[in-house]
Amino acid sequence: MGAVIEVQELRKIYSVGLISVPIGMAARREAKVLRRFQATPLPPAVYLTTQLAITWW
Question: How many Cβ atoms from other residues are within 10 Å of residue 56's Cβ?
Answer without folding.
Answer: 13
